[in-house]
């Protein structure tokens, strides 16, 4: 008579219970914590992680909680990014039931701070003109992730053109005034991730 023991382990599953493994954010920003659920076979400190870049983001870290049965990536991305930068991470987890392992990856895309630079003369941002007189063209260049730029507060009648990373304001105000009037205008960049850059001028 021969007897033996068969041990059955539950199916091993790795899920993200909070956050998303693919995020895009502005330089210096804090990521939405990425929480991996380890409760189905992976609640062990036996894990390894690596980054695709030679220098790993110093302020991002993985923390394993045996009690909560989670592995969490949290922290902030570098604040010195000047071009679009992608950080890809790889996590290898070994099952607590067997010697098998599972590999999962994620990607953090970091956008640089926008730029908004006056390319016309400084005097164009503070002009004094007579009624029915054209202004000197006002030109700003936007970049580093800014997709466009928009003005506000301009007097009626002026033309605004946005092309080739430039916003150009020209034309003749069509307003009818009876006393000296100052119009304060604002130029703002457009971006989905970083705080817009703004510049103020006067006509």
The fraction of residues assigned to DSSP E strands is over 45%
Rg result: 28 Å
Strand line-up of the largest beta sheet: 1-3-6-5
* Rounded average pLDDT: 90
Provide the low-confidence segments as ranges. Answer: none
Report how far the terminal alpha carbons are from each other.
102 Å
What's the helical proportion of residues?
A: under 10%
By secondary-structure content and strand pairing, the structural class works out as: mainly beta
Q: What best-fitting shape do the alpha-carbon axes yield?
A: rod-shaped
Number of helices: 0
One letter per element, helices H and strands E, the order comes to: EEEEEEEEEEEEEEE
Strand runs, count: 15
Largest sheet: 4 strands, antiparallel
Structure description:
With 203 residues, this protein is mainly beta. The chain is 0% helix and 47% strand. The protein contains no helices and 15 strands. A hairpin with a 2-residue loop joins strand 12 (158-163) and strand 13 (166-171).
């Amino acid at each position: 008579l021969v007897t033996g023991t068969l041990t059955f382990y539950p199916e091993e599953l790795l899920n993200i219970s909070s956050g998303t493994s693919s995020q895009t954010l502005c330089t210096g920003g804090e990521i939405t914590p990425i929480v991996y659920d380890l409760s189905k076979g992976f609640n062990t400190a036996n894990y390894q992680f690596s980054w695709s870049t030679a220098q790993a983001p110093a302020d991002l870290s993985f923390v394993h909680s045996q009690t909560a049965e989670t592995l969490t990536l949290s922290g902030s991305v570098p604040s010195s990014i000047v071009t679009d930068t992608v950080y890809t991470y790889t996590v290898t987890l070994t099952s607590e039931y067997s010697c098998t392992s599972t590999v999962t990856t994620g990607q953090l895309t970091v956008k640089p701070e926008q730029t908004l630079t006056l390319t016309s003369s400084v005097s164009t941002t503070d002009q004094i003109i007579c009624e029915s007189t054209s202004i000197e063209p006002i030109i700003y260049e936007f970049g580093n992730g800014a997709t466009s730029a928009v003005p506000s507060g301009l007097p009626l009648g002026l033309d605004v053109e946005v092309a080739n990373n430039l916003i150009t304001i020209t034309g003749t105000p069509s307003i009818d005034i009876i006393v000296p009037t100052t119009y304060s205008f604002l130029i703002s960049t457009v971006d989905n991730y970083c705080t817009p850059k703004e510049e103020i001028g006067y006509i």
